[in-house]
Automatic annotation (TrEMBL):
Organism the protein comes from: Microbispora triticiradicis
Protein name: Transport permease protein
Recorded topology in the membrane: Multi-pass membrane protein
Membrane-spanning parts: 35-57, 69-91, 121-141, 147-172, 179-198, 243-262
Classification via InterPro entries: ABC2_TM, ABC2_TM_bact-type, ABC_2_transport, Nod_factor_ABC_transporter
Entry's localization field: Cell membrane; Membrane
The entry's keywords: Antibiotic resistance, Cell membrane, Membrane, Transmembrane, Transmembrane helix, Transport
GO cellular component: ATP-binding cassette (ABC) transporter complex
A single GO BP: response to antibiotic
Domain ABC transmembrane type-2, first and last residues per copy: 35-268
Domain of life: Bacteria
Pfam families tied to this protein: ABC2_membrane
Family: Belongs to the ABC-2 integral membrane protein family.
Main location as per UniProt: membrane
Length: 270
């Protein structure tokens, strides 16, 4: 195993340059496999078609059309999909020895992990643009101001940022692409056990409680409010304070998983 070189404090300008370099490395890697990236970006669009047109006729949206209820939920789900793609990316780099080679270079941990996070945020911006365009094409429309629409995008990217650090930590912890399959399997229950597709008050009481307090539900409910789209009808603290929860949940996840990711990365050579 390669022993990383001794690290010394580096100027902030160097850290930023290293971060930009590593972000560019990931983006160039994606450019070399455009088909898989394109499929990843279009998969949420296929889910909109499936749930909006195949199942949508049987769905009852509180206070409006089901498509108006679905699109904000799918925007939030798109942010969750970044978690599994991050885990796969990190485990692939570890399995191929790329992570170990980068560790041997005079590059700070901050730059290595921040580069991954920055590249993922750029990818999510493209994904959001595609999903918003899809929503507009199928008849969905925001009914509030441009500022509130931008605030919704900000909440979505904030959630993606938090999920990015969860994904980095799990990828470093699992190490092999085969073990990453477990995370991919777990992402789906987290996504469906939320208010992304249906109102939690249609579920049994114990599932209702879990779905109501799901971080994904907080963001989906908050952006429905900001977009002026129909939301789930049940009252309760979580529904009435969804914007606050949409800010708080990603902050909690980041505070927990960002330090864990840094510690796990530094422990790879141990």
């Amino acid at each position: 195993m390669t022993t990383p070189s001794t690290r010394h404090p580096r100027p902030h300008a160097d850290v930023l340059r290293d971060t930009a370099t590593l972000t560019g490395r990931i983006l160039r890697h994606w450019r070399g496999r455009p088909v898989s990236i394109l499929l990843g970006l279009l998969f949420p669009v296929l889910m909109v078609v499936m749930f909006g047109y195949i199942f949508g006729g049987a769905m009852a949206a509180p206070g409006g059309k089901y498509m108006d209820f679905l699109i904000p939920g799918m925007l939030a789900m798109t942010m969750l999909f970044g978690l599994e793609s991050m885990v796969v990316s990190v485990t692939n780099d570890t399995a191929k020895g790329i992570t170990e080679r980068i560790r041997s270079m005079p590059i700070t941990t901050t730059a290595v992990l921040a580069g991954r996070s920055a590249a993922d945020i750029l990818n999510s911006v493209v994904g959001l643009a595609i999903m918003i365009a899809t929503g507009l094409l199928v008849g969905w429309a925001p009914n509030r101001s441009l500022l509130q629409a931008l605030a919704s995008v900000g909440l979505l990217l904030w959630l993606r940022f938090a999920f990015t650090w969860v994904g980095i930590y799990l990828g470093l912890l699992l190490k092999t692409p085969e073990s990453a399959v477990a995370v991919q399997v777990l992402v789906w229950p987290v996504g469906f056990l939320s208010s992304a597709f249906v109102s939690p008050d249609t579920m049994p009481a114990w599932l209702d409680a879990i779905a109501t307090w799901n971080p994904l539900s907080a963001t989906a409910t908050a952006i429905r409010e900001l977009f002026g789209n129909p939301s789930w009808s049940a009252g309760g603290w979580a529904n009435q304070h969804s914007i606050m929860l949409a800010l708080a949940w990603p902050a909690v996840l980041t505070v927990i998983f960002l330090p864990l990711a840094v510690r796990q990365y530094r422990a790879l050579a141990a």
